[in-house]
Amino acid sequence: MQQKSVRRSNRDRTEATRADLIAAARKLFTEKSYAETGTPEIVAAAGVTRGALYHHFADKQALFAAVVEQEAAAVAEEIERASPPSLFARDALIAGSDAYLAAMRARGRTRLLLLDGPAVLGRAAMDEIDNRHGNRTLREGLVAAMRAQAMVKLPVDALTALLAAAFDRAALAVEAGASADDYRTVLMALIDGLSPHQAPRPARTR
Amino acid sequence: MQQKSVRRSNRDRTEATRADLIAAARKLFTEKSYAETGTPEIVAAAGVTRGALYHHFADKQALFAAVVEQEAAAVAEEIERASPPSLFARDALIAGSDAYLAAMRARGRTRLLLLDGPAVLGRAAMDEIDNRHGNRTLREGLVAAMRAQAMVKLPVDALTALLAAAFDRAALAVEAGASADDYRTVLMALIDGLSPHQAPRPARTR
DNA sequence: CTACTAACATACAGGCTGTATGTATGCAAC
DNA sequence: GTTGCATACATACAGCCTGTATGTTAGTAG
Fold first, then answer.
1. pLDDT at B113 over 60
2. What is the average pLDDT across B70-91?
């Protein structure tokens, strides 16, 4: 047991306080929403005062960004843990998408990452975060599939973004009670539709 | 010219005031965001007081819902106007998606309908609105394509939702400065990938 | 040991939301 | 038409929240 008011270095204090604030905020932001959660409530849950919060974060939005960042990293880590390294390109994509949908079932994650995140931080900021974490894996999987000729060649960034958007919407729908099987079926169909079985019909450019 | 304080029926007054409030709110919500727009600013722009607002709408969120509803209807109408009635199923889908992307270029529409809308009203409410307007056309187009055997049979609701999600993300990306051509190419590839050229490889259900 | 700085806590100002209350106008019945 | 009620507002108020400014304690460098 450690006695109260142990002597701690400033670095330790900062780290601990920041972690406490992020953890408390994460809990409240996922239970309720960003707008419905006030900073007085957050600091009370973290056991500090608003002074500490505004010392460590520029504003409420910056604290939110830190929470989103951490949660996106957690999702990415769950996916990487679930998807074995070397598979056929298509199987790796499917394993990854299943892992993503599973990870997004954690309570409140969809609202945090898919609803409040884009609205509060903007799509650009969310893209930047996603590309540093979860989307990286997806993008690499797509590049690998194209290189292995298991997928038609397409602009990679756009394809990554659009598939990610479909995954996101699927996660939201499943959480809202839709048939997970239906959505999984369609996701697989969209992915398999990109296989190069036949020469693609000449696309009328205009 | 009509003299001031003309005698108007209550129904006319209500309709005019509601329309003024919605128009003023729409302008501000699209120029800034929902969170950054205060009710004092809205009523000032509409030329009434906050009393009128809270007489006609339950709260700020209800006014926002009315704005979103109207804007979604406007988008749907632009699409229907742009897409000729009888085409081959695939061409109709492409024309519709182009029309959607064009309609979403109106200033502030993406934030209103794709960012703030889901965050403030929730995905369920936005789905309900979308299904009453824009998504109806998409869904019918998909059903027609499947019936004409121009598209593999898939769960229609899930497919509609996921394609709509992809369109939405494309609209956001294009507004953020991404290559519209790239996104259009990928969207077409996703749609064409659903054509039944070959028997689909046996999907391992698990 | 001294001086400076980081890590907080406390106090304050401004703004916003929603509600309660007051007032004038349309409207319906007699 | 006037009496009475409901509708359409305007005004006033209470509570909360955010961000900042200021004060205090604890670490840390010289």
1. yes
2. 88
